[in-house]
Design a protein that fits this description.
This protein is of the alpha+beta class and 296 residues long. The protein is built from 2 helices and 16 strands. The chain has one domain (30-294). The longest helix has 31 residues, at 31-61. The radius of gyration is 22 Å and the shape is globular.
């Protein structure tokens, strides 16, 4: 076959592939395609947000030495007084503390081992290990904690990646920066989420009781991006928080706030966490239609 004929065939093949890709993109830009994309991306982004919000609570809750203590799996609520009364009477996890320097208390490595399965008071089952290295107490500005995961599961989700929590507050305002780096959340059926995020977490309630986490509420702002492999289909998205997310330590779910969901440079949908009620419901709006989703 001559060079000219090869060139013609190559041009035809490339043109055909280009037109096919354009047709697929056109199909996905229709109402049904946008709704499918928005559903997959909204649920995946919300799932990732909840998984790493849980990590935040546990990193802060290990003890008053490294955080505020008594949050996440490390505390229980006494509803009569609203105060945290310490750890549950029958914890199903172990905590190992390792001083990384012989000269100073910090950096301090803490490993929380949930074994083959540990169901906490919030009804969620955790398995495997999380290992956190604290540069100092997280109540002091400038200190940070970096978390990695060892065969760690939250319910049926395997968690991989790195979570970094830094105190970026001032004397008058408690604030944290959270970074999620190259996270992967996998399920046994082959579906998975890849996610990275950088958020600012600012305390808006509970500042007058710094040693009690039960009355704390935080606003979350920032951006994230991710992709999901879902039942043989692949979706990629980015998000920007347009109305601050509201999270209370006493509630496992984000209760309020709005996220704008985009595909490339095009805004496709809005994810609304609700009006402030503590539940696992949210909704997304696309093309004027509202669809309810369940947060996992």
């Amino acid at each position: 076959m001559g060079y000219r004929m090869k060139t013609i065939l190559t041009t035809v093949l490339v043109t055909g592939l280009f037109l096919s890709a354009c047709k697929k993109q056109d199909d996905e830009s229709g109402t049904t395609g946008k709704e499918e994309f928005a559903m997959a991306a909204s649920e995946s982004d919300a799932t990732a947000e909840e998984v790493f919000d849980d990590v935040f609570n546990n990193v802060m809750g290990v003890s008053p030495e490294v955080g505020i203590g008594g949050t996440g799996v490390f505390g229980r609520m006494d509803v009569s007084s609203g105060r945290l009364e310490g750890v549950d009477s029958t914890p199903c996890y172990t905590v190992a503390v390792k001083q990384l320097s012989s000269a100073t208390r910090f950096p301090l490595q803490i490993t929380v081992d949930f074994g083959s399965g540990c169901t906490a008071k919030d009804g969620r089952t955790r398995a495997g290990k999380i290992t956190v290295v604290y540069t100092g107490s997280l109540v002091i500005s400038g200190n940070s904690a970096t978390t990695v995961f060892d065969n760690y599961y939250l319910d049926n989700i395997k968690v991989e990646g790195t979570h970094k929590l830094s105190n970026t507050g001032t004397l008058t305002q408690k604030s944290y920066t959270t970074q999620v780096i190259n996270a992967k959340l996998s399920q046994s059926n082959g579906n998975y989420i890849q996610w990275s995020s950088e958020k600012t977490v600012t305390q808006v309630e509970g500042g007058s009781t710094p040693l009690i986490g039960a009355d704390d509420a935080y606003n979350i702002t920032g951006n994230a991006g991710g992709s999901v492999q879902l039942n043989g289909k692949y979706f990629q998205w980015s998000t920007a928080i347009t109305a601050p997310l509201t999270k209370r330590f006493s509630c496992p779910w984000i209760a309020k706030g709005i996220i704008s969901l985009s595909k490339g440079n095009d805004a496709v949908a809005e994810l609304d966490y609700g009006s402030g009620i503590c539940d696992n419901k949210g909704s997304f709006t696309v093309n004027g239609s509202i669809h309810e989703i369940t947060l996992h």
